[in-house]
Amino acid sequence: MTPKAIPLLALVTALSGGCNGRSTEIQLETGGSVATHGHSSGSQHPFPDPQTYATRLDDPERNDWQKPEEVVKQMDCRPGMTVVDLGAGTGYFVGYLSQAVGPEGHVLALDTERSMVDALELRIERDALENVTPTMIASNDPALTPASVDRVLIVNTWHHISDRTEYAKKLRAALAPGGLILIVDFTMQSPHGPPPQMRLTDDTVRRDLESAGFATELIADSLPYQYLVAGSLP
Prior knowledge:
27% of the residues lie in helices and 22% in strands. With 234 residues, the protein is an alpha/beta fold. The chain has a single domain, classed as 3-Layer(aba) Sandwich (Rossmann fold), CATH 3.40.50.150. Strand 4, helix 6 and strand 5 form a beta-alpha-beta unit. The protein is globular and about 40 Å long.
């Protein structure tokens, strides 16, 4: 399956500056938006205008390095499961997740930006993804019912969350027994993603999850620019 770009958003071709006023294409991210950036100094600023990222999110060339089918395979989704795409953006992953859980399953596509949720709704209608529900959430709470979801996918988004340990605790509470969280984010060496000073190492991500009570694993995979960290309930 190769999701098609959303025509309305494909018209957005002028990509404006990202964090810290940097405007080069190499520093624009390809992921959803969940919260403000948290810097080591404690300063924060809002996520840039999500419309400037729309073309990037659905760029067909992204498939070459994002490898969505391989990512979803690592989640070990099964028919009938409820899965979350946290920071879903324009819905790059929702078609793959929808297929993985089947018609009896459910995909919760969550984002904090109204424009992203609008784009999700367009994709869901266009692709007839009847088992996908788009929802706008607050930046500090995924608003998930306790023990209600089986899998959580977070792609190119974890570094946006300010209080990551507290957020991870909320995700842990939302997982059903046997649940799994998979975080995919940019390595320090990646030519894609935010400026290096805003990135997180895989060790940092593992510590975030372990502080919230997860058992973690760094998954060996073939993604050229990203790492995969899995968190499971002990």
